[in-house]
Design a protein that fits this description.
alpha/beta; 3-stranded mixed β-sheet; 9 strands; 4-stranded mixed β-sheet; about 35% helix; globular; about 375 residues
Length: about 375
């Protein structure tokens, strides 16, 4: 016998009442928490408006919002590596450095920097001059040093060169390994998204102007400064190997200075190339010197409209021979700089300019003291 509450005149009415009670019970279970929550909100809300308002710290809120405490994912892309030392292979490094954002507007505050990349064998004897050059311009530059793997720099923590060595490999003059080192410098510098301009220098290079002039010059330029010219002589076209065709035709063959300055777009082209690189590695052997032809030819083919076809680093070949002149202590004077700086003429953004060279080489260690003496009066260092 069913309890009285479940008794009905017919079975259909019984199941209808049973299902109704089950449905109402389920609704109560589902909505009761929300009813209580709403009641609580009305209660505390009325108390809030009826009583003096007291500022409540977020930490004392009754209902804490669900906030993600993890660092912003964007930081992984924006922040440069905390250390320049890593265990990536060249293949991994060049791959990581070749990423290019397709949205050109940066979603964060970005101050573009100049990456100064020193390709050296070991010490930087002119580092005191560079220290004076960089002083007071923090946040506008980055420094990268590629030396022989066996060399361990000993710069003090306050030096701009402190811990600025990158993982390096042995390089040989006239060998493809020299271009590998240049690409290694570019790739490490590209990992810092704030680096916009990239300058290749040696341990014998010096700046010819103060930091402000050089930074403004690079920032205002519409082109990268890579020397790339067609020379019919035996020292240029005469080094072309017909085995490079059809990938590289002799009409595309170019020669230029090893010392370049490129922007981020051109730097990425240089790092990501594998096709032309392989052709030069196989077919450009001495007396074909890879560092004089690889990048000038590559960039002439791929980005000719982006380069100015000139270098901004002075090299004196007037003394003849296979190596440029070296300047020592006896060479350094105000007249020396007047000679190399006055009378310059070149195109800058399609207009005539009297500032064409921003750096010079090769300076011996003995030139350091007279250079420091003239740094403020002639070079404009503060």
């Amino acid at each position: 016998m069913l309890p009285r509450i479940f008794q009905a005149e017919d079975g259909k009415d019984f199941f209808f009442k049973l299902q109704s009670r089950f449905f109402i019970s389920s609704l109560m279970k589902c909505f009761l928490p929300f009813v209580l929550l709403a009641s609580g909100a009305l209660f505390f809300g009325s108390r809030y408006f009826d009583s003096p308002q007291i500022a409540i710290e977020p930490s004392s809120s009754l209902f804490l919002p669900c906030v993600n405490k993890e660092p912003s994912v964007l930081d992984r892309w924006v922040k440069p590596p905390s250390s320049l030392m890593h265990n990536m292979s060249d293949e991994e490094l060049f791959w990581a450095a070749s990423f290019v954002p397709q949205v050109k507007k940066y979603p964060f505050h970005r101050v573009p920097k100049v990456a100064f990349m020193f390709l050296t064998t070991g010490p930087l004897p002119l580092s005191p001059l560079w220290e004076k050059f960089f002083k007071g311009n923090e946040g506008l530059y980055s420094i990268y040093v590629h030396s022989l793997p066996s060399y361990k720099a000993n710069f003090p923590p306050e030096s701009v060169f402190y811990k600025r060595q990158i993982p390096s490999q042995v390089t040989e003059w006239g060998n493809i390994s020299l271009c590998d080192a240049e690409k290694r410098l570019l790739a490490n510098a590209l990992l810092d998204l704030s680096n916009e301009w990239f300058i290749l220098l040696s341990e014998t290079c010096i700046p010819l102007y103060n930091f402000s002039i050089i930074y403004t010059y690079l920032k205002g330029s519409n082109h990268s400064f890579v020397e790339s010219f067609d020379d019919p002589s035996p020292h240029a076209r005469g080094r072309y190997n017909p085995e490079m065709a059809p990938l590289i035709d002799i009409s595309q063959w170019r020669k230029g200075s090893q010392w370049f300055e490129v922007d981020r777009t051109v730097a990425t082209h240089m790092v990501q190339d594998t096709m032309y690189y392989l052709a030069f590695k196989v077919f450009c052997k001495p007396p074909c010197y890879v560092d004089e032809h690889y990048f000038p030819t590559l960039l002439h083919i791929e980005t000719s409209s982006l380069i100015a076809n000139r270098t901004i680093t002075l090299t004196d070949w007037s003394r003849g021979g296979s190596h440029p002149a070296t300047f020592g202590e006896a060479d350094i004077s105000e007249e020396f700089f007047k000679r190399i700086l006055d009378g310059q003429e070149c195109l800058y953004n399609g207009k005539n300019s009297s500032i064409c060279l921003l750096f010079a080489r090769k300076f011996a260690p003995s030139a350091l003291q007279p250079l420091l003496h003239l740094a403020s009066t002639v070079l404009g260092f503060t």
